[in-house]
Amino acid sequence: MKAKHQRMTLVVLALIAIVAAGLIAAWALRSQANYFYLPEQMAAEPPSVGQAVRLGGMVAADSIKTAEDGITVNFMVTGNTEDAIPVTYSGILPDLFVEGSGVVAEGSLQSDGTFLATNLLAKHDENYVPRELEGLEGHNQSENYAETVAGLK
Amino acid sequence: MIAELGHAALWLATALAVLQMVAGGLGLRAGNEAIVALARPAAVVQAFLATLAFLLLLYAFAITDLSIKLVATNSHSMKPFIYKLTGTWGNHEGSMLLWVAVLALSGGLLAGLERRLPEKTMSATLSVQGFVALGFYTFLLISSNPFERLPLPAPEGSGLNPLLQDIGLAIHPPTLYIGYVGLSVAFSLCMGALITKQVTPDFAKVMRPWVLGAWVFLTFGITAGSYWAYYELGWGGWWFWDPVENASLMPWLAATALLHSVSVLAARDALRTWTIMLGVLAFSMSMLGTFLVRSGVITSVHAFAVDPERGSFILALLGLYIGGSLIIFAMRAGHIAEGKRFSATSREGALVFNNVMLSAILAIVLLGTLYPVFTEVFDVRVSVGPPYFNPAGAIFAIPMFVVMAVGPLLRWKDDKPQRIQFEMLLLAAIAITVIALVAFFGSYDILPLLGLAFAAALGVASLLPLRGRKLSRVPTATWGMVMAHFGVAVSLFGMASESAFTSEKLAAVSAGGQEEVAGWTIELQSVDPIAGPNWTAVEARIIATRADGDGVLLTPQARNFWAPSQATSESALLTTWDGQLYAVIGDQAGVDANGNPRWQLRVWWKPFVTFIWYGGLLIAFGGVLSIIGRLQVDLKRRSAAKRGKERRDDVEALGGNAAPEPAE
Questions:
Q1: pLDDT > 60? residue B438
Q2: Which of residues 395-454 of B touch A (CB under 8 A)?
Q3: Which helix (H) or strand (E) holds B20?
Q4: Which chain B residues are within 8 Å of A135, Cβ to Cβ?
Q5: H or E element, residue A144
Q6: Mind listing the pLDDT tens digit for each residue in A10-58?
Q7: How far apart are CA A7 and CA B20, in angstroms?
Q8: Least CB-CB distance to B367: which of A22, A104, A132?
Q9: Looking at the predicted structure, is the pLDDT value of residue B573 above 70?
Q10: Does domain B166-341 have CATH number 1.20.120?
């Protein structure tokens, strides 16, 4: 094999690998589009039970209840419609986790319709807001919310 | 005065960068020797000026000069002194100044010390380096001037993000920056060699220490950052696939590929254009990392300021550097003569295969990191997390580990796989035994299981190149490779063990209460309020006892900082040889049956988790050994050449016609 041919083979092999990586990434990322849910989306088209997803929304007023064991917390997450998803979380709550604040819960939907969260992402200071929650808080919630859903349909 | 001096130093350095760029550029044509000779001194003086500017800013932070805007918005007079200093780069402008200072320093080092390359190549390299530096000076001076004054001095500063008030800030950013910037020197060298058509083994030998050095610092910086996030964020996680972490991982992947291919070029004169391409790629990735972190397109604790102007500026620089280098590459690549050939089953073949695998992993990480940024343009918010990165990365990591195990056993140029049949069978047997054993004793996910198997096989494989050799005669550089590869195995073992065997306990406990986790008894003694220099906290006193050993006191805290107002969780760690106990205290949670207050406690037992970072340190140490080894060989060769020359000169001085002494 001549040196020039060897270089061609190398380039072709590298291209194949990179294209393969690109295709795998594209295929895997498409399924990631179903990774983030708003409460109404979860109510309308629930993910399959046990699938790892994120649920983002607002913690409904008067809904945080701490269970008897002192570590399990139940609360409702709402979006802009009436739909509310009950969430169960066992663990230490993020510092700025209060009723009316935004939250992203990582976890999966259970067969009884509750969302079992393994991790809660909340704002942990003034400068850091989970990306999915930007604009979800405050009075301009509804218009931002409309924007957020626009592309998902 | 300090701020004005610093500002002036920056402007002067900028002017010198222009001089360096022009003078170096003129070096490509003959007849400008007087101006060309200025390129080296320009780079050296520039290094002094940029370092001076940085030291002046450091001083302003040390004395908390509140008339400087940057100090007022990011520091506080009551902050502990060490965090006043490290706070210098705990913000956008300061960290960019550190970046630029390191860039100028390495440019000065290159100009001052490197004499091996042909003059023309050196001029072109310095010119490119000046061009790169100029871009960053302009960015700093136009859109992020660190020395801007306030019209009226602020009465008090607004403080530093408490998450950054940690010794980690002293280590993690500077080491990463040195790594990023070292890649810029590699990039300039690549461009210089490409422009002057000097892509030779000698060029590779000049470039290798820079690539190795940058890679060592990147490795160390990533390791330090991972450990910092692990103990500071209080979630017990050590890698989050956060876009900013990916921004440091991508240059590392590219640099790892580059460092292996530059070795092939130096040793075997093969892979010429491939090495240049990787040099461009590695620097592009560190630029992209800077863009992602500094532009505010992604939100994280690293993105200090969201300012669209800065984002577009860095994006323009990125386009200019990458686009420019690709154009030069396209014009010159055809002129680079072919290197030496090799067969597929040779050490070069294995290195090329793993280069391609590393690039593929890089593509996976890159696409996963940029995808949310792209979808945002269409108003779709997407989170890309471990469910994507782990399996997609593993598709390419698995074949890479296989080849990494056998590659160093192969000979250069051409080899028969049958020759290392025994070793391959041995490694396969180890991997299969581990899988069978672990799967027999419990059910775990496929990736941690494979991780454990590969860790064991790789650990043995990394030592095999030493087999049958006299250890005292093994070159230092080879020890470096063995060490680094062994480090990968150690790190992989830590990661797999952490994700497979971690056990966790979460409970609300009142004083005197006990909990059990993985053979540890955790007793909460008391919870007390305490105060630090700029925070107050509740601190739990926990006694952790294993089997019949002595109890160890752990004191996790929930801190409240007042400037800026923020709560953080300080985890308490108990390190043993076989893992770490990780304890966090949460909120008060009601009262127990006797009316005593209960506190939320979360405790993890993470077997061998520390091996992740021991492995990282081993990898970096392997890189250091490799640099030392190369320098030793180089110095030996130089002094031998010098002695040979002296002897010839002596002979000449004796009359020149003295007959050589007859050999005995």
A1: yes
A2: 395-396
A3: helix B2-26
A4: none
A5: helix A141-150
A6: 778 888 888 888 888 888 877 666 677 888 888 888 888 888 788 888 8
A7: 36
A8: A22
A9: yes
A10: yes
Q: Which chain A residues have a beta carbon less than 8 Å from that of B342?
A: 6
Separation CA B284–CA B318 (nearest Å): 7
Distance from A78 to chain B by nearest Cα, in Å? 17
* List of residues 6+ apart from B401 with CB closer than 8 A: B454, B458, B492
DSSP state of B338: P
Which range has the worst mean pLDDT, A126-130, B394-398, B433-437, B652-656? A126-130
Residue B279 CA to residue B273 CA, distance in Å, equals 10
Neighbours of A33 (CB within 10 A): 15
B558: closest chain A residue by CA: A95
For residue B365, what are the CA distances in angstroms to B243, B249, B335, B394, B657? 9, 8, 33, 11, 68
Domain with CATH 1.20.120 in chain B: 166-341
CA distance B79 to chain A (A): 19
Over residues B207-213, mean pLDDT: 92
Q: CATH 2.60.98 in chain B: give the residue spans.
A: 503-608
Does A147 touch chain B if contact means CB atoms closer than 8 Å? yes
Class of domain B503-608: mainly beta
**What does the block give as tokens for B548?**
């019949």
What's the token pair of residue B155? Answer: 């009465």
Phi, psi of B175 (to 5 degrees): -65, -40
Dist. CA B389–CA B381, nearest whole Å = 18
Give the Cα separation of B284 and B340 in Å (integer): 28
pLDDT in tens, B470-504: 888 888 889 999 999 999 999 999 999 998 898 88
Contacts B273 to A, Cβ<8 Å: 7
Cα(B144)–Cα(B206) distance, integer angstroms = 34
pTM of the predicted protein model:
0.88
Structure tokens at B585: 């205290």
Give the residue, B300 or B150, on which the prediction is more confident: B150
Query: In this structure, which amino acid lies at residue B558?
Result: A
